[in-house]
UniProtKB/TrEMBL annotation:
It comes from the Eukaryota. The chain crosses the membrane at residues 28-51, 63-89, 95-122, 143-160, 204-228, 240-263. It comes from Myotis lucifugus. GO terms for molecular function: G protein-coupled receptor activity; olfactory receptor activity. The gene is LOC102420991. This is G-protein coupled receptors family 1 profile domain-containing protein. Putative odorant or sperm cell receptor. It is a multi-pass membrane protein. Coiled coil: none annotated. Residues 44-295 form the G-protein coupled receptors family 1 profile domain. GO terms for cellular component: plasma membrane. It is found in: Membrane. SMART domains: 7TM_GPCR_Srsx. Pfam families: 7tm_4 (PF13853).
Length: 314
């Protein structure tokens, strides 16, 4: 990438992450909450991944999908949160051009990948409850492989233009990003060029990817709920509702936090600028911390696999 020149004619080789502009004196206190959440998120996801890898009874499509979700969570956490903590603790605000756009690419690609994984998991539960006799023939290891290929290719191709469009802009003004992370618009608005296309493409891609996933997920759970209500066995209905309920709560939390961030960001001056910035950071941390815990607690097979893993090592 060709490096840009700022207004003084000097070469711009990095951005400075201002993080929370109105909380410069107190933002380090946020690390008191963020650091333990990061440790919890990484620890819980690594334990879940190890349990699925080592426990033979968990070598099934449903648990492979959970492993994909955990892997995405780990990548998102490590892409965003360590840099935020370095800013809070050591005032390490500089980030290289390449590093900034790499972070932007990973965030814009892996969040929709997580959304697509939730969609595939919803389909898995739909088949298990609405078409149980066909489940072994439909949800196979080959299905998981095909789903993983779909998740990667769909979101990679759809979101790649976002960082490419931002990287091609001419950054000839300030290089101070008023954000904790290299969000597309936060970086693009520092350029001297027209960023209408950047805003339009991000808006269309986000709503097409995440919006279609959410609609299909809710549709799947409507069919699941209708099938559960028809079950003759009260125990089977309760178990199905309990399992799917925990899944649906995590999914709705993922999308609700994302929607709140989008709407607060659109509200502009009506909402303090620190609010959407902090929500964006938390969206890369809270779902990854909650997902493995809820699935581990609510799924008996995973709970047993984790207990065996801990007993084996201790």
């Amino acid at each position: 990438m060709v490096l840009s020149l700022n207004s003084t004619g000097t070469q711009v080789t990095e951005f400075l992450m201002m993080c929370l502009p109105g909380m410069q004196d107190t933002q380090h206190w946020l690390s008191v909450a963020l650091a333990p959440l990061l440790v919890l998120a990484l620890g819980a996801n690594f334990v879940l991944l190890l349990a699925i890898w080592q426990e033979a009874s968990l070598h099934e499509p449903m648990y492979y999908l959970l492993a994909i979700l955990s892997l995405l969570d780990v990548i998102l956490c490590l892409t965003v949160i360590p840099k935020v903590l370095l800013i809070f603790w050591f005032n390490m605000k500089p980030i290289s051009f390449a590093g900034c756009f790499l972070q932007m690419f990973i965030m814009n690609t892996f969040l929709p990948m997580e959304s697509s994984t939730f969609l595939v998991m919803a389909y898995d539960r739909y088949v298990a409850i609405c078409h149980p006799l066909r489940y072994p023939s439909l949800i196979t290891e080959q299905f998981v492989i095909n789903a993983a290929i779909f998740i990667v290719l769909r979101n990679f191709l759809a979101t790649l233009p976002t960082p490419v469009l931002a990287a091609r802009l001419n950054y000839c003004a300030s290089n101070v990003v008023e954000n904790c992370i290299c969000a597309n618009i936060s970086v693009a608005k520092l350029s001297c060029g027209d960023i209408y296309l950047n805003k339009l493409y991000q808006f269309v891609s986000v709503w097409c990817l995440l919006g279609s996933d959410l609609v299909l997920i809710l549709l799947s759970y409507c069919f699941i709920l209708r099938a559960v209500m028809r079950l003759q066995s009260g125990g089977a209905a309760t178990k199905a509702l309990s399992t799917c309920g925990s899944h649906l709560i995590l999914i709705l939390f993922f999308y609700t936090l994302l929607l709140v961030f989008i709407f607060t960001n659109k509200a502009g001056k009506k909402v303090p600028s620190e609010v959407p910035i902090l929500l964006n950071v938390l969206h890369h941390l809270i779902p990854p911390a909650l997902n493995p815990i809820v699935y581990g607690v609510r799924t008996q097979e995973i709970k047993q696999g984790i207990i065996k893993l801990l007993k084996y090592h201790y």
